Amino acid sequence: MQKYIIIFLTFLSTAALFSCGEEFLDLSDPNAVPSGEFLKAPADVEAAVNGIYEAIRSNSALGESSSVYVDERSDDMGRNDNQSNAGEPFQFNDFSLIPSNTYLKSHWSALYTIVSRANYVINNIETVSYPDENLRSSHLAQATYLRALAYYHLVRKWGAVPLVTIEVKTPDELEEVTFRETEANVYAQIIADLELAKESTLPDHQPISGKGRVSKVAALALLGEVYLTMGSNEITGKSPSEYFTLAKQNLEEAYGKRTFGDLKEIPYESVFDVDQKSTNPELIFQIVYRQGDQNLSSAVARNNQALGETINSQRPATGSGTRVNLDLVNEFEQNDPRKEFSVNYAEDSRVQEFFITKYRDVSDAAGVNGFGGNDHIMMRYADVILLLAEVNERLGNSAEAIAMLNQVRDRAGLPLYEQAMQNPDYAALYPTLKLAILHERRVELAFEQKRWYDLLRAFAISELVQFFKSKDQSEYGVANLQNFSQKDRFYPIPFDEYQLDPERMYQNPGYN
């Protein structure tokens, strides 16, 4: 039975009960309680839900170092090292990915671990007696949101994927669900899960004690983005305009629940300040890391830092950090403060490239080991605002789109869109409102694992091939832009999964 998708038989990892702040990060022995005997009380469900949050933290899933699967696939960043780890990470930004890539399989498996743990809660929660039904609603909503989030990543990366909503207990059940469901049906399940979370008893925003947990605004915002993606990719079921209308409704509801006025009230740098990560009103959903803790701290600041630099972390760098493509560096407009904050040039003769400085923790609490406190921001209001700009542009509501775009530009201290279009250089680079919004998302949300998905919404695959091949290779590093082709719209199905059933787990075009 090892031929089947082993991930669905993964042990449910449990977590210590959540009480406040980061305490739900403390994880207990994942095999301490047999899953079949586990869910007897609300406290058991709480621990099981914490196990789902633990699963999304994995760097093979959605954790802070999962950028290899998203940002390194885009035109923002990459690596010149095509030898480390058998060159497998390099394949993602070189567009030379093969089905046997072990990083690819790890990502697939880690996303299905999230699904498996969520299914365990969703399929067993009704057997538990709750004195407070509001708590049941909250537990169920968190599980469905996290399942939807995992499937949203799966369907955008692979297209049709196995859709599993049951708790798989037997090899026969496992075999029954081992087939690729249509994209439309996967999206339908994502919507159903997010609608449940949206209508639940979740708070609009989590209090400080709940940071790192899902909120109602997170559900609304993700649902809006999902509808925008469906319309952009022409998923069957509704017309693009119908999807865009639904996207606007949910995004506007999320935006309407903000606790501030205009975005400029929140300084850009404060969004990434480790001392404000629990109180900054722009943050909607984040993966929490614990400063100073060897096992639960963030490594993003020290990992990004290049030789000879000290801006990110007290820990001395031993490598070249995370390389930023000149293609992105050159897209920042003159006097855009986000450039100086987000990237820096490493002068060391062994580097002499731009590296990421957006995530920093030079505190004594993080220390010389670089055990940072940066949270991995999954969603924030600037993202929602620019998604609203995008969907309004799609619907032909140019004035509304420009108003949203201008909120982000105003905070950055840049000329508003109407004024910027009077600049011949800006107008030549971004001749349409669509391209201006895409540009703004790129510089505002750089290194937040948005760019690849933004490109997939903005361009049909034939357009995207032309887009990449028109770029200057000298601004992209050693990864070969000419490798990009229509097959790269999706990842290949991991070889082991394809081998399970070559007919029902058929390979994506171009990878056979």
Key structural traits:
two-stranded antiparallel ribbon, globular, 512 residues, 19 helices, 42% helix, two-stranded antiparallel sheet, 6 strands, 4% strand
SSE inventory with pairings:
Elements: H1 42-57, E1 77-78, H2 90-94, H3 102-124, H4 133-158, H5 171-177, H6 183-198, H7 216-232, H8 240-256, E2 283-287, H9 300-304, E3 323-324, H10 326-329, H11 337-342, E4 343-345, E5 354-356, E6 376-380, H12 381-394, H13 398-411, H14 417-420, H15 424-429, H16 433-444, H17 451-458, H18 461-469, H19 495-500
**Segments where pLDDT lies below 50 for 5+ residues?**
1-20, 27-34
Query: What spatial form do the alpha-carbon principal axes imply?
Result: globular
- Measure the end-to-end span: 25 Å
The main pleated sheet reads as: 2 strands, antiparallel
Topology order in helix (H) and strand (E) letters: HEHHHHHHHEHEHHEEEHHHHHHHH
Helix content: 40-55%
- Helix and strand content put the structural class at mainly alpha
Strand content: under 5%
Number of helices, counting only DSSP H or I runs of 4 residues or more: 19
Provide an overview of this structure.
This protein has 512 residues and is mainly α. The protein has helices spanning 42-57, 90-94, 102-124, 133-158, 171-177, 183-198, 216-232, 240-256, 300-304, 326-329, 337-342, 381-394, 398-411, 417-420, 424-429, 433-444, 451-458, 461-469, 495-500, and strands at 77-78, 283-287, 323-324, 343-345, 354-356, 376-380. A two-stranded antiparallel sheet has the order 1-3. A two-stranded antiparallel sheet has the order 2-6. It has a two-stranded antiparallel sheet with strand order 4-5. A hairpin with an 8-residue loop joins strand 4 and strand 5. Helix 3 packs antiparallel against helix 4 (133-158) and helix 12 packs antiparallel against helix 16 (433-444).
